[in-house]
Automatic annotation (TrEMBL):
<keyword id="KW-0560">Oxidoreductase</keyword>
<dbReference type="InterPro" id="IPR005992">
    <property type="entry name" value="IMP_DH-rel2"/>
</dbReference>
<dbReference type="GO" id="GO:0003938">
    <property type="term" value="F:IMP dehydrogenase activity"/>
</dbReference>
<dbReference type="InterPro" id="IPR013785">
    <property type="entry name" value="Aldolase_TIM"/>
</dbReference>
<feature type="domain" description="IMP dehydrogenase/GMP reductase">
    <location>
        <begin position="18"/>
        <end position="307"/>
    </location>
</feature>
<comment type="similarity">
    <text>Belongs to the IMPDH/GMPR family.</text>
</comment>
<dbReference type="GO" id="GO:0016627">
    <property type="term" value="F:oxidoreductase activity, acting on the CH-CH group of donors"/>
</dbReference>
<dbReference type="InterPro" id="IPR001295">
    <property type="entry name" value="Dihydroorotate_DH_CS"/>
</dbReference>
<dbReference type="Pfam" id="PF00478">
    <property type="entry name" value="IMPDH"/>
</dbReference>
<dbReference type="InterPro" id="IPR001093">
    <property type="entry name" value="IMP_DH_GMPRt"/>
</dbReference>
<dbReference type="GO" id="GO:0006183">
    <property type="term" value="P:GTP biosynthetic process"/>
</dbReference>
<dbReference type="GO" id="GO:0006207">
    <property type="term" value="P:'de novo' pyrimidine nucleobase biosynthetic process"/>
</dbReference>
<protein>
    <submittedName>
        <fullName>IMP dehydrogenase</fullName>
    </submittedName>
</protein>
<keyword id="KW-0520">NAD</keyword>
<dbReference type="InterPro" id="IPR005990">
    <property type="entry name" value="IMP_DH"/>
</dbReference>
Length: 377
């Protein structure tokens, strides 16, 4: 039964929970972390760790996408970002770094990003970026917005994209645009021969609607990063991640029954900043996590220690700051797999996931989704 709270006369709200509100319960069984598998597979593509990168230029360049892929995850390029608009991205990023250093006004860096994203999209540039990833032999994934998905996808497919991510702050099964044809995801996906991951969503009903479009994966959340994203302040919209993941997992279960066996992956995107958050996301029902800010600390991240989301560059309603992350001291391999001397859970992210699974006696990700949970008092 849903936990409804009266917030005023005739008005109720549902009580929901963040990842920080829950804890994983150890079971009667433990095992060695060497006997634990973190592999997962979406469509025909298999990955060693349940990691998808948040598609922001702050952490994903063509080179970073290759590095993530070689380490067992999935790097996602932004087909509407800097690598699709500027031939010299290093110069564009230098302008951004200078703006953060020369001004204490947080709007200064956002203004630079808006100016950089005002440059026209060039398919030759994004095709070259895709080629670099494809030639490395790793899986090629690219993100488009719902508004431009129909326009850009044919050229992206021709360039060699293998997984398409249709992502906005909030997405629905049908994106309505005045003065143009709406994007109907069901017909859009049906015409494609590659898997589509779509999101973000924050509730059972929308997750179910997206699953019924034929999406191979549904993104839960909008990439919330503390001190970076401002969607709650700007739009008043928030997604308590523990509840949202559990709701989407319930939709996945019901859709599995409805279709007689079609499994749709749930991807948690938001509020995941530590290895404990990764473990709790899987425990709530996610198949993988979409990491952003934690990867900004990697020496390979192109943002040079800065982090922002694509929503920062919106021309009229930006919903992300350009924030200083941490010093770039670790390469991706150490950030993901250790070894680590940091006890805060910000490094060895997936080595810690293995340890959490081993400590609770589970051998793979799908089993770990059944682990017991408690709510903090």
């Amino acid at each position: 039964m849903r936990d409804l709270v009266e917030i005023g006369m005739g008005r109720t709200a549902r009580r929901a929970y963040e990842l920080d509100d829950i804890e994983i319960i150890p079971s009667r069984r433990t095992r060695s972390s060497k006997d634990v598998s973190t592999t997962w597979q979406i469509d025909a593509y298999r990955f060693d760790i349940p990691l998808i990168t948040h598609p922001t230029d702050a952490i994903v360049s063509p080179g970073t996408a290759v590095a993530v892929g070689e380490l067992g995850g999935l790097g996602v390029l932004n087909a509407e970002g800097l690598w699709a608009r500027h031939g010299d991205v290093d110069e564009a990023l230098f302008r951004l770094v200078q703006a953060t250093e020369d001004s204490e006004d947080p709007a200064a860096a956002v203004k630079v990003l808006q100016e950089l994203h005002a440059a026209p999209l060039r398919m030759d540039l994004i095709a070259e970026a895709i080629k670099q990833v494809r030639e490395s032999g790793v899986t090629v994934a690219v993100r488009v917005s719902p508004q431009r998905a129909a326009e850009l996808t044919p050229d992206l497919l021709a360039a060699g994209v293998e997984i398409l991510v249709v992502q906005g702050t909030i997405i629905s099964a049908e994106h309505v645009s005045r003065g143009g044809e709406p994007l109907n995801l069901k017909s859009f996906i049906a015409d494609l021969d590659i898997p589509v991951i779509a999101g973000g969503v924050g509730d059972y009903r929308t997750a179910m609607h997206l699953m019924r479009t034929g999406a191979a994966g549904v993104i839960v959340g909008y990439g919330y990063a503390p001190g970076v994203t401002t969607t709650d302040s700007v739009l008043g919209i928030g997604v308590p991640m523990a509840t949202a993941i559990a709701d989407a997992a319930a939709a996945r279960r019901d859709y599995l029954d409805e279709t007689g066996g079609r499994y749709v992956h749930v991807i948690a995107d938001g509020g995941v900043t530590t290895s404990g958050d990764v473990a709790k996301s899987i425990a709530c029902g996610a198949d993988a996590v979409m990491l952003g800010e934690p990867l900004a600390a990697a020496t390979e991240a192109p943002g040079q220690g800065l982090y922002w989301t694509a929503a920062s560059a919106h021309p009229s309603v930006p919903r992300s700051l350009v924030a200083e992350a941490v010093d770039q001291e670790l390469d991706l391999r150490k950030l993901l797999f250790g070894p680590s001397a940091d006890p805060r859970g910000v490094t060895n992210l997936f080595g810690a996931l293995k340890r959490a699974m081993a400590k609770t006696g589970y051998s793979d990700l799908k089993e770990f989704q059944k682990v017991g949970l408690t709510i903090r008092g």
